[in-house]
Amino acid sequence: MINKTVKSIPQINVRQGAISQAMDKFGLAVQYFPGYVNRKLRLHSPDIVLLSFILNGTGKHYLGDEIYDEKPGYLSITHYGQYHDIVTGPGGMDIMNIYLDLKKHPLPSLPPELQPILPEIIPMDPCLQHKLNRMTRLFIKDHMNVARNLFEIDRELHEKKKGYETAIRNYFTLFLIDCCRNAIDNGVLPGTDKPSFENSGVEAVRRHMDANFAKPHTLESLAKFAKLSPEYLCRAFRKYTGKTVFSYLVQRRIQDAMVRLRFTDDKVSSIALECGFNDFSYFNRKFKELSGRTPREYRRFRDKSTMKNQDSG
């Protein structure tokens, strides 16, 4: 186990120079590290959402006490405030870092069939964090082809030719489309240890709720689905996800509501019902409790951010 305390782990501020300017303008910046070598573990906490794309070389990715093998094609998405580091092999690694500020800048709109996939890869909002999505991981087979859009973003940020704002957003949208396609083909890898035999029933319940979040559920029906006792399911689920069964379910419903508020013009009351909330007052209360905004305030904030981005392009 890694013997580190929270106070001893620094928070890294990436907002410096050109990176800071890009983050302020787009909520997005990229930084390429060819031949990166780091042989000593130094856990740190990014103040943004960090995507680490391995283009060449091998190493180990530490997330607190968890360790993952890194090799070309792996894309790791590390949530706000998570303590992590990548320790390279002796030959180093080629890494492309993508920095996202999702507190102030929403992700771009994707085709409707991909919109529900994106939140499973990149968190739409800091309030949607739980133990299993502190880090998510994709394996992208044709990784150099996908990375071309990131190199184009880097070039546009440096050259700043006319129309570069639109070009950057378009390249980033194409990158996200590639990520979603890979998630559909190969799945999303939660950034946590694979479920043990003991947790296999708990993981089945989590996936069942993810796939049927809008349907009514009881603890008894979920326990029966997993062939576990209700008492055991409660304890094991919280240990596994960091959430109670029903706080996880509510968060999953709120996530889908955020997608609909962001990408549709549906009435808020209709969205609440379609996401599994039969009590509109309860939906409003839980939404604000999690996000700090009412659903209508959230929609106005996202619409305003989108309009600002379009105007600057």
Write down the CATH topology of the largest domain: Jelly Rolls
For the record, the count of structural domains works out to 2
Question: What would you say the CATH architecture of the largest domain is?
Answer: Sandwich
- The backbone outline, from C-alpha atoms, is globular
Structural class: alpha+beta
Q: Which regions contain 5 or more consecutive residues with pLDDT less than 50?
A: 1-9, 307-313
What is the count of β-strands?
Answer: 9
CATH class of the largest domain, please? Mainly Beta
Rg to the nearest angstrom? 20 Å
CATH superfamily caption of the largest domain: Regulatory protein AraC
State which percent range the strand residues make up: 15-25%
Architecture overview:
This protein has 313 residues and is of the alpha+beta class. It folds into two domains: 6-190, Sandwich (Jelly Rolls); 200-305, Homeodomain-like (Arc Repressor Mutant, subunit A), CATH 1.10.10.60. The chain has helices at residues 17-26, 118-121, 143-159, 164-186, 200-211, 219-226, 230-241, 245-263, 268-274, 280-291, 295-312; strands at residues 11-12, 28-36, 45-46, 49-63, 66-70, 74-78, 84-100, 135-139, 189-190. Strands 2, 4, 5, 6, 7, 8 and 9 form a seven-stranded antiparallel β-sheet that branches. The longest helix has 23 residues, at 164-186.
Describe the SSE topology.
Elements: E1 11-12, H1 17-26, E2 28-36, E3 45-46, E4 49-63, E5 66-70, E6 74-78, E7 84-100, H2 118-121, E8 135-139, H3 143-159, H4 164-186, E9 189-190, H5 200-211, H6 219-226, H7 230-241, H8 245-263, H9 268-274, H10 280-291, H11 295-312
Parallel strand pairs: 1-3
Antiparallel strand pairs: 2-7, 4-5, 4-6, 4-7, 6-8, 8-9
Helix pairs in contact: 3-4, 5-6, 5-7, 8-11
